[in-house]
Amino acid sequence: MPVRPAIQGIDGPEPLGRALREAQYVADEGLATAAYLALALGKPLLLEGAPGVGKTEAAKALASVLGRELVRLQCYEGIDAAAAVYDWNFPRQMLAIRQAGETWVNLYADEFLIARPLLLTLQAPRDRVLLIDEIDRADPEFEAFLLEFLSDFTISIPERGTVRAAEPPVVVLTSNRTRELHEALRRRCVYHWIGWPDPALEAQIVTMRASSVAQETARRVVAAVGRLRAEPLAKPPGVAETVEWAQAATLLNAQGTPWPAAFARAIGVVLKDEDDLAFVRPRIEALIGGQAA
Predict the structure, then answer these.
(1) How many other CB atoms are there within 10 angstroms of residue 196's CB atom?
(2) What range does the domain containing 276 cover?
(3) Which terminus, N or C, of the chain has the lesser number of Cβ atoms within 10 Å?
(4) pTM assigned to the model
(5) Inter-residue contact 267 to 277 (CB < 8 Å)
(6) Per residue in 80-137, pLDDT tens?
(7) How far apart are CA 190 and CA 42, in angstroms?
(8) Is residue 94 one of the residues assigned to a domain?
(9) How many domains does the chain have?
(10) Which is nearest to 65 in space by CA: 193, 172, 146?
(11) Which of 40, 31, 29 is nearest to 4 (CA)?
């Protein structure tokens, strides 16, 4: 398998990890290595993990590091090729026909083509990073279509011909593992599982993303979130909610709300489900675990 030359001067996992950190994303050694290998080998990067661990943010940070536009394809049940590849602007075609009268109109000119994420990526693979988000939410039939796309990075437009990428684009797929992906899709990717960050790493993320939060507050928020994730919640808090809870509690404390009441009052920032809130509220003080600095 040919190795692609270093992209943007990134010639190893360690330089990529440092670049991601500069882009406000803390990647551990495993993620930095998987992302580097995907770039070097010209293969898609498949990131799996629970909702909220930072899969989508990893793709955004990678696009930032590479200085490329992020093109996002959000998958959902029932998504089809028209939503992912291209479509024709039918109202505009009809208007052009009426305005032209008896003059011939090329209804398949660029002005009538609506490029969706996959086609946009093929048109400028050096300028874009394609994020195929939550592929597990799509139907298996659409996954099979993507498998063909990822094999040769070409799209056939019957009215126009075949569009082929000048080089393999940078592609990141994410999955919450609500269903198993086809083995053939996995074989075409460099795979990495993103778990919940350990407390020290998550505290680093909080202080990096929220400069107003004291280190001790970050540690206590992370510990409280860890206890929340151990509870049988419908929607366990993600890393983004950890950061936001620390920010919200710090803001309330600065306005006069003492610790730990500031945490309790801001609980709606970290828990976003009515049943979860009802379950946690009677034991909020025990879960918060004391005062913050």
Answers:
(1) 19
(2) 199-288
(3) N
(4) 0.89
(5) yes
(6) 988 999 999 999 999 999 999 889 999 999 999 999 999 999 999 999 999 999 999 9
(7) 10
(8) no
(9) 2
(10) 172
(11) 40
